[in-house]
Amino acid sequence: MSLGGRTNAGHNAHLPLETIREMIHDRVAVSRRRLTFKDLEKQITAIDGVPKPLVRTAIRSLIEAGILEYRYTFGQSYLELSFRNPVDVGDVFTIVPPGYSGKMSPHRLPIAIAPGVSFGSGRHPTSRLSLQAIEGTWAYRTSQGIPAVQSVLDIGTGSGILAIAASCLGASTITALDIDACARSEARLNIRLNPGAEGIQVSDRPLSSFNGRFDLVIANLRLPTLVALSGWVASHLAPSGCLVVSGFRDEEQDRLFACYADQGLQPLWQKALAGWGAAFLGVPASLATKDDPSLPADHAFCL
Fold it and tell me: How many structural domains comprise the chain?
C-alpha cells in the first residue's frame, strides 16, 4: 500500500474501515517521528483524503483491538504500535508479550520481550531492520554451505532482543554488551523469558578486553559510534565473519559504507525503513578463503 502521494478525498470517503485501519497502522509503523492522535488524524485526513470522522473511528478501533496503544513521554501522549499482541518481523521472527500462549505458525520463532525503558522493544525501525538482517545472514550462509554462526557479540544490546534472535537461530556462544545497568538488567529479564537463551552472557566488559574473533558482530548504534568501531570490528571478525549494522540515517549510509570498505567489509544486503537503514557486511571471498581454506573459493562473500 502506498503511503506517499495525495489521493482523491471523494474517492477515499468510501473506503472500507479495514482499509483505513491498514493505512493508519502503516503510517504509524513507518513514521520518522512519534505521532499524537491529532498528528495521525491530520495526516490521514490531509494526505490520504479520508474524512476525519472515519479516521477517528479507525484509530479508536485500533486502540480497542490492542494494535495501537498510547505511550506517555514528558507529559505528551503518542500513538505507537502495541506489542501486547504478537508482531511478525520478517519471515522468521515474531515478537510476543511475556507469557503468550496463543497460536503461532510453527515456522516462526517467538521472541518474548517485556515492557521496559531500554532500546529494543521492536517498535523502532532499526530493531525490526536488524532482526531481518540477522535472519538474512543465516539464510545466506545456509544456502551457500558456509558453517553456521556460533559466536556472536552484540554491542549495545539494550533489551537483548538481537542477542536473543541469534540464540533462536542456533548460535551457541553469545555475549551481549551494554554500559547501561538498566539495559543489562532488562536484557537478563528478557533472556529468562526465552527458553534456550539462558546461555547468553550479559556484560559491561570493555571491547578492549576481547581477544577472540566472532562469527557475527551486531551493532545497532548511531553513526559516530559505528564509525569509531570499524577498525575494532574488522580485526575481531572471523575470516568468514559477518557484521549486522543499523542505527544510521539514509543520508549517512554512504559515509558508513565507505568507512567499512576501508576495513575490507562490503555491504551485501541493505534495507531502509522510515528514514533509517540497516545492512549486513562481509569479507570478500578472496580474503576469507586465504585465511580459512575450508571455505570454497566460489563463495563471493561470507553471507
Answer: 2
CB 281 within 8 A of CB 268: yes
CB 24 within 8 A of CB 58: yes
Distance CA 141, CA 161 (A): 21
Whether residue 302 lies inside any domain: the answer is: no
Task: For residue 284, give the DSSP letter.
Answer: -
pTM: 0.78
Q: Assign residue 284 the CATH number of its domain.
A: 3.40.50.150
Q: In what order do the strands lie in the sheet with 93-96?
A: 87-89, 93-96, 109-112
Over its length of 303 residues, how does the chain's per-residue pLDDT go in tens digits? Answer: 333 333 444 456 678 889 898 888 888 877 767 899 999 999 889 877 889 999 999 999 999 988 898 988 788 899 988 877 888 899 999 999 998 888 888 899 999 998 877 776 777 889 999 999 999 999 878 877 788 899 999 999 999 999 999 999 999 999 999 999 999 999 999 999 999 999 999 999 999 999 999 999 999 999 999 999 999 999 999 988 999 999 999 999 999 999 999 999 999 899 998 889 999 999 754 445 444 444 433 333 333
Residues 6+ apart with CB under 8 A from 10: 49
Is the domain of 27 the same as that of 132? no
Domain range holding 220?
Answer: 125-291
Residue 144 covered by a domain: yes
**Cell output for 58:** 479507525
